[in-house]
Design goal:
The protein is α+β, with helices and mostly antiparallel strands. The chain is built from nine helices and twelve strands. Helix 1 runs antiparallel to helix 2, helix 1 packs parallel to helix 5 and helix 5 packs antiparallel against helix 6. The chain is elongated, with a radius of gyration of 28 Å.
C-alpha cells in the first residue's frame, strides 16, 4: 500500500489530481466519503480548505477559518490526530460541523500533514457513517499521511515556482512595454502618431479593441475626445465633446482613481457615450493621469471582459 501511495504522489504537480488518486488508494484501508486538504496560511494565520474529493456533491469548496475555530487548526497545533465519531455529539467548531452535516457526513477524522521541515495543515477524512474511523484505521492512515505530506509540500513548491515564473514573465512584459513606449516617445514628435504608437505597444501586451484619450476642456466642462484607436465604426469621433457628468471617463476624472465598468455599470450611467458602449458590447476600464497640466483618462476596452 505504501508503495502505491509513493507512486501516486510522485506523478502529480497539482493538489486536485493528487487528492483524486489518493482517495481511491486510501479507501482500501478506511471507509470515507469525503477527503480534503486543509492548509495553514502563515501570512494570515488562517486554516484554508484547499482541495476536496467527495463521492457526493460538495456545497463548500472554499473556506477560511481562524486556527482556533478549525478542527484542522487543532491538529496543526497539537500534531495529533483528531477523531470525531459522531458529529452531532461534538460541540466545538460550529462552522466546520455545519458544513459537514449539510453534506451528509456523520463522523470525521483529521491527521496532521507534516514534513520534517514544516507543518502544513491537516488531511481530513469524513464519512456518512457514525464511528467510521477505528484506532487501527487511524494508525494506518497516519503512516500513509506522512508520505502524503511530502507530496503536498512538493506540489506547493512546484505551484509557488510556477507562480514566480509567471510573475517574472509579467514583469518582463511590463519592462518591454515601458521600453517600447519610451522609444515611441523619443521617435514621434506628432502627438497623434505618438498615441497610435503607444496604442500598438499596449495591444501587444493587453488584447483590447478600443483605446481613446479624453482631454478635459475647462471652458466647456467636457472631454475633448482627442484621439481614438478603433477598427470599427462607432458613434464617437475624434474631437467630439463628451460631458463629464454621466460619462465613464467622468468617473475616473472626478475621483482620480481607476474606474472599471461592465454592462450593468454602464447601464446605471446616462449619456450618449454610455449608449455607444452598450450597443458595442464593451466593458471598459479608465485610468486617471496627467499630461502636462491636463488631466486625462486612458481607456482600454474589450468585448468580453475588462483587461486593462
Amino acid at each position: 500500500m505504501l508503495l502505491d501511495v509513493l507512486h501516486a504522489t510522485a506523478s502529480h504537480r497539482d493538489l486536485q489530481s493528487l487528492l483524486c488518486d489518493l482517495a481511491g488508494l486510501l479507501r482500501r484501508v478506511a471507509r470515507f466519503d469525503r477527503l480534503a486538504i486543509v492548509l495553514h496560511d502563515p501570512e494570515r494565520d488562517l486554516m484554508r480548505l484547499h482541495t476536496i474529493v467527495s463521492l457526493e456533491p460538495t456545497f463548500t469548496t472554499d473556506l477560511e477559518l481562524p486556527v482556533p475555530e478549525s478542527p484542522a487548526g487543532l491538529v496543526w497545533q497539537t500534531q495529533r490526530p483528531f477523531v470525531v465519531p459522531r458529529i452531532d455529539a461534538e460541540t466545538r467548531f460550529p462552522e466546520a460541523r455545519r458544513i459537514l452535516r449539510a453534506e451528509g457526513m456523520r463522523s470525521f477524522c483529521i491527521l496532521p500533514l507534516t514534513t520534517p521541515l514544516r507543518r502544513l495543515g491537516g488531511l481530513s477524512f469524513a464519512s456518512q457513517d457514525e464511528d467510521a474511523f477505528s484506532e487501527a484505521d487511524v494508525e494506518v492512515l497516519q503512516e500513509l499521511t506522512s508520505q502524503v505530506a511530502l507530496a503536498v509540500d512538493n506540489t506547493l513548491h512546484h505551484e509557488a515556482a510556477h507562480r514566480a515564473q509567471q510573475e517574472l514573465a509579467r514583469k518582463r512584459d511590463r519592462l518591454q512595454l515601458l521600453l517600447e513606449v519610451n522609444n515611441a516617445l523619443v521617435s514621434n514628435l506628432d502627438r497623434r502618431a505618438l498615441f497610435s504608437a503607444i496604442s500598438n505597444c499596449l495591444r501587444r501586451v493587453v488584447a483590447h479593441d478600443y483605446t481613446s484619450l479624453a482631454v478635459y476642456n475647462g471652458e466647456r466642462n467636457a472631454f475633448d475626445m482627442w484621439a481614438i484607436e478603433f477598427a470599427g465604426k462607432g458613434l464617437i469621433k475624434e474631437h467630439m465633446f463628451v460631458p463629464v457628468e454621466g460619462s465613464p471617463a467622468g468617473r475616473a476624472f472626478t475621483t482620480g482613481e481607476p474606474a472599471r465598468f461592465g454592462r450593468a455599470d454602464l447601464a446605471a450611467l446616462d449619456g450618449d457615450i454610455v449608449y455607444h458602449e452598450l450597443t458595442h458590447g464593451t466593458s471598459i476600464r479608465l485610468h486617471h493621469g496627467l499630461a502636462g497640466q491636463q488631466p486625462i483618462d486612458f481607456r482600454v476596452a474589450n468585448h468580453v471582459q475588462t483587461l486593462g
